[in-house]
Design brief:
The structure holds two protein chains of two kinds. Chain A is of the alpha/beta class. In chain A, 20% of the residues lie in helices and 25% in strands. In chain A, the strands form six sheets. In chain A, strands 1, 2, 5, 6, 7, 12 and 22 form a seven-stranded mixed sheet that branches. In chain A, strands 14-20-15-16-17-18-19 form a seven-stranded mixed sheet. The chains are: A alpha/beta, B alpha/beta.
Chain lengths: 445, 625
């Protein structure tokens, strides 16, 4: 039985921030992530608003600090399997360590295995389906740990990687393991997915040149799959790019009645990056309301307008795909003086899909935290002490509790670290006695 | 063996090369294209590699990533590097990151030098590839010349006074004070008014949980008062601030008796009975949190008819009125109000040439973040109190982000009529017995609309407070819009760039209550982490005085923005002779004092004038192609 002060579930930017802050305060932390590298969603991104710093420049140093921190232990490919509240302020947790099929001690991260691997499977993870990946290898250039992992789903068991490995690190005998631990506090920082449902009227996911915001992030990222922005159907450089805002939020019919908070800003940012990456392209953003509410965001929006990005108040009703050319026609009701129903041709359409929590009702069967009406983890003291869940000693940070941009996620990570420290030092006990009736009404009722 | 003089000299030179030839490692970062799209990084690293002082010269996609850091650490050990230079982004971002890397690898962290070829090269010369490459080489050569002379330095250790101050007794201040005090850190909570609660006291229900703002404030204030580790200073302002992290001196001053009627608030809010140190006028704390809050924009006379008609009110005025109004119909100043128009973005999202700047003269281009939701919350409240009331909502964008979207949905269901007016064309208000509004509605394709209403509610924005002394005393940086500026928006979001000073709540920019408590707890967590340490390490790059040369002219004292230099008697038996001395914890190493000293008696340690001259000479050398 290993003992820690805190277990952090999810090693994205808010989990990492919580871990570093707790580690700096002297607490022993175990941080786990179900992926083969830490870094979460942020490590996939290109540049970030409103400063246009590269996302990696913020994420990788924080990843590195956490990974090498004396007080922080990191486990990847690891999930929570069982949980028991010991009701004395501690928890017993059984972790599920999924097999990596690569011995971490032997692997040097040379990536010879990936060179030898003949598999080319669609990379649905890091590259969001925009490229192919080998069945084995270091997950990506800035991954941590810098160790190969083997994806058993796409592996064809040809054994070429094992032969190529100079240190005999490939090991097909790995099995799932159970690791019992005892912790004083748990932080759930499991982040979000893009809203998964692409509506039929937007092609239902079948139109090749209709991509999601996160796919565009990969195309724009310096670590991206294509070294530039291209049309998936024919690899041509798009001359006209459209953004459809609120494609996966503010819509009760797809189960996402809330606003996702980040899509306006990432669309504006991507539009600005596209003006540099594809200088001749015309970029149009179809929006309902531009929600540039953070510090410096409004100036950023004005900057994008000045750069020539066209913002059109309008609701996109339908996207039509030409069977042969795969060109797209967007039907939209445009508001404003020359408004009305319009059909506009575009080469590439980006859907700003919005966010849904990665933490699901099923996961709440393992750690029984209550969910709110929007299915994010409910905070019992939402306004006064954000981050406290319905279970004393279990906390939630970042997008796990609701839509947040990166700044707010980092602040959430730090503030939760503070609350965990209070809990561990015996404070906070009385906070759980004050229960407010949950008054957030269900949206879209 | 007998050697000729020449042979001896050559031998000596060879030994010297072998033993004392500097071994500098230079690392050029691509910054994932941010730099390498403009600067030919491989050429830079190749040319720099030809310098005899350079033992290793490499370029890499992200030097700050773990593989990049590992590369440096491995090279330091394998190639016995004695100095390291990374050419990448601004030192504000990652100088500390790389200092830590070289320190972990066994080098003195101050034998590291950071060169900025992103903000100072690739971002500003994005269309001049060759020149940018040339400039990068020159800057790195300058750094090599400078780092060669760099002696190992030790950080300055300073004792930490393990208590804190929180300035501002609003929601952020109280939350931060409680979080610190609950970790057994003594806290002085300083509030300029007679009561705790700040801007909370003017609110109605706090969205989205609809908690009553006043009971929320009372609840927090009650905890503050009961907490034995919190020393409360009401009716008090910070008059003067000196010092630096580890030991800040705050001189307190009682404000004039306030006119606020204390009867309105619970007695407990005003009773400072448990404070034995209540008369303290000088505090010494190791760190403090700025939670000084915001002011509300005050419309100018005539802005949408404000002050020209009594029926043009601000949103906070409406909230205050509704908080005490108990009628069945909405009567205001003797008139029954049947139609209300609410106008968004008053004093926020201001555009040059369209809006008149506030008295500060600086346009508030920010979005104030909270007014959309509050406006719709109050529209819904009016509808539920007085179901027959007609409400027009004149907006630019409705920014009910996250779960707050609910208020927008509810307002639509309540038949609030939404009119989107053009950004550059504010609605016009005519007062002619009645209130008439003229505007264009984008939703109806730019149709001109006119409406007569009984009341106009202006959703005024949040603006920064007029700078308290403390900001000017310590030169705390503020941003374009006048709010306190964080050291880095993502790396250090609740820290000021002045070490030991943290930011919480709306002093930093518009935030709702939840966001204020989040930043307050984050600031308390960060401050707590340093306040529990007995001492801290400070940068050794500070000014030092050559006591033999100093003549006590005191020019440096006037030049120093950080009040780090004082003049005093030289010593016993030398009365009348004055010299300068530097408080190393307040000094930021800016060098302003160096430039004004006629005796050259003050220098920045580890960065003296000789070194600077060598650096400049190296930068001026032609780059051979």
């Amino acid at each position: 039985m290993y003992e820690y002060d805190a277990l952090i579930v999810g090693a994205g930017i808010s989990g990492i921030q919580s871990a570093i802050d707790l580690g700096d305060m002297g607490y022993k932390v175990l941080m786990i992530d179900k992926q083969s590298s830490i870094g979460g969603t942020m490590i996939q991104l290109s540049k970030v608003f409103p400063t246009l710093d590269c996302a990696s420049c913020i994420t990788t140093p924080k990843m590195s600090t956490a990974f090498h921190h004396d007080n922080i232990e990191v486990r990847t490919l690891c999930e929570v399997k069982h949980y028991k509240d010991l009701e004395d302020g501690r928890f017993e947790v059984i972790l599920k360590q999924n097999p990596r099929f690569v011995d971490m001690d032997k692997c040097t991260g040379c990536n010879d295995c990936a060179e030898a691997c003949p598999v080319a499977a669609i990379d649905l993870g890091y590259d969001e389906g925009m490229s192919y990946k080998k069945a084995v290898g270091v997950p990506f250039a800035t991954a941590l740990p810098q160790k190969a992992a083997l994806d058993i789903e796409s592996c064809i068991f040809c054994g070429k990687c094992a032969n190529a490995c100079p240190t005999q690190a490939i090991n097909f005998d790995h099995r799932e393991e159970e690791i019992p631990i005892n912790v004083g506090a748990i932080v759930i920082a499991t982040g979000f997915y893009e809203t998964p449902t692409i509506r039929e009227k937007y092609g239902g996911g079948k139109f090749k040149n209709v991509i999601t915001g996160k796919q565009m992030e990969r195309l724009l990222a310096p670590t991206g799959p294509a070294g530039g922005v291209f049309r998936p159907s024919d690899g041509k450089s798009p001359g006209s790019i459209a953004y459809v805002q609120c494609a996966g939020s503010r819509d009760a019919t797809i189960g996402v009645p809330y606003c996702s908070s980040i899509c306006c800003m990432f669309a504006i940012k991507q539009a600005m990056l596209l003006s540099a990456a594809v200088p001749l392209a015309e970029i149009t953003v179809y929006y309902m309301d531009i929600r540039a509410f953070g510090k410096g965001y409004e100036d950023f929006y004005e900057e994008a307008k000045a750069m020539g990005v066209e913002f059109v108040k309008g609701k996109v009703a339908q996207i039509h795909e030409d069977d042969e050319t795969k060109d797209l026609t967007v039907s939209v009701e445009v508001f404003g003086e020359d408004g009305g129903i319009q059909k506009v041709d575009h080469d590439l359409v980006v859907l700003s899909m919005g966010v849904v929590p990665q933490w699901t009702a099923d996961m709440s069967k393992i750690i029984p935290v209550q969910l709110g009406p929007d299915r994010f983890i409910r905070e019992i003291r939402f306004t006064e002490e954000p981050g406290l869940t319905s279970i004393p000693g279990v906390f939630a940070a970042g997008m796990a509790t609701g839509p947040k941009d990166i700044v707010d996620s980092i602040n959430s990570g730090s503030s939760v670290a503070g609350k965990v420290a209070l809990w561990l030092s015996g404070g906070l006990r009385e906070e759980y006695e004050v229960q407010y009736i949950p008054l957030i009404p269900t949206l879209g009722k | 063996m007998i050697m000729s003089d020449k042979e001896k000299k050559d031998k000596k030179k060879a030994d010297k090369t072998e033993e004392t030839q500097p071994r500098v490692g230079v690392y050029v970062c691509h910054c994932g294209g941010n730099i390498s799209d403009v600067v030919d990084t491989s050429k830079v690293s190749k040319i720099i590699g030809e310098d005899p002082n350079v033992a290793v010269s490499k370029d890499f996609i992200f030097m700050c990533s773990d593989p990049g850091q590992k590369m440096i650490a491995d090279d330091v050990k394998a190639n016995h590097l004695d100095h390291v230079i990374v050419a990448s982004c601004s030192p504000r971002l990652h100088e500390m990151t790389f200092q830590r890397v070289v320190s972990d690898a066994g080098l003195n962290p101050f034998q590291y030098q950071h060169v900025n070829i992103r903000e100072q090269v690739s971002w500003v010369h994005s269309h001049q590839h060759e020149e940018a490459t040339d400039k990068s080489i020159r800057l790195i050569r300058g750094a090599i010349a400078s780092v060669l002379d760099q002696p190992p330095l030790e950080p300055i250790k300073k004792k930490m006074i393990q208590s804190a101050a929180v300035i501002g007794g609003g929601v952020a201040g109280m939350t931060a004070a409680l979080d610190l005090a609950n970790r057994d850190i003594p806290v002085h909570l300083i509030e300029k008014g007679p009561v705790l609660g700040g801007n909370l006291l003017n609110l109605d229900k706090l969205y989205p949980m609809e908690i009553d703002a006043k009971s929320f404030a009372l609840n927090l204030a009650d905890k503050v008062l009961k907490n034995p580790a919190i020393y409360l200073h009401l009716d008090t302002v910070v008059d003067k601030t000196e010092g630096a992290i580890g030991d800040f001196m705050l001189q307190l001053k009682k404000t004039e008796e306030s006119t606020v009627n204390k009867e309105n608030f619970a007695v407990s809010l005003t009773e400072p009975e448990k404070n034995p140190d209540y008369d303290i006028s000088v505090l010494h704390v190791g760190s403090f949190i700025m939670a000084t809050g915001h002011d509300l924009y005050e419309p100018y006379e005539g802005e949408y008819g404000y002050k020209k008609s009594p029926f043009v009110v601000t949103l906070p005025d409406l909230i205050k009125y509704l908080n005490i109004y108990r009628g069945n119909t909405f009567v205001y100043k003797g008139k029954e109000i049947k139609t209300v128009a609410m106008i968004h973005c008053v004093g926020s999202r201001q555009i040059e040439g369209v809006h008149q700047p506030p008295p500060s003269g600086i346009l508030n281009t920010n979005c104030s973040r909270v007014c959309c939701t509050t406006t719709l919350q109050q529209a819904n409240r009016l509808k539920s109190l007085f179901p027959k009331i007609q409400i027009y909502d004149l907006y630019r964008d409705i920014r009910t982000y996250g779960e707050k979207e609910h208020y927008y949905e509810e307002a639509s269901k309540n038949n609030v009529i939404f009119i989107k007016y053009p950004d550059e064309e504010s609605p016009e208000v005519e007062i002619n017995g009645s209130l008439k509004i003229k505007t264009r509605d984008i939703i109806t394709y730019g149709l001109e609309v006119e409406m007569e209403v009984d009341m106009i509610v202006l959703a005024v924005g949040l603006i920064p407070r007029i700078k308290p002394h403390i900001i000017t005393d310590l030169s705390l940086p503020t941003g374009n819009n006048g709010f306190l500026q964080e050291a880095h928006v993502k790396l250090r979001p609740v820290e000021s760039s002045v070490q030991g000073v943290f930011l919480a709540g709306t002093a930093q920019g518009p935030k709702d209550v939840r966001e204020s408590t989040t930043t307050a707890s984050a600031a308390a967590a960060k401050a707590g982490a340093i306040l529990t340490k007995e001492s801290i390490n400070l940068s050794p790059f500070v000014a030092v005085v050559d006591t033999d040369k100093c003549q006590g002219h005191a020019l440096c004292v006037n030049e120093c923005e950080y009040n780090a230099i004082t003049i005093h008697d030289k010593g016993v038996g030398e009365s009348g002779v004055k010299i300068a001395s530097v408080d190393p914890s307040a000094c930021v190493g800016c060098g302003a004092c160096v430039a004004v000293c006629p005796e050259q008696a003050i220098q920045v340690q580890g960065y003296d004038i000789n070194k600077l001259e060598k650096e400049i000479s190296a930068i001026m050398l032609e780059v051979k192609q």
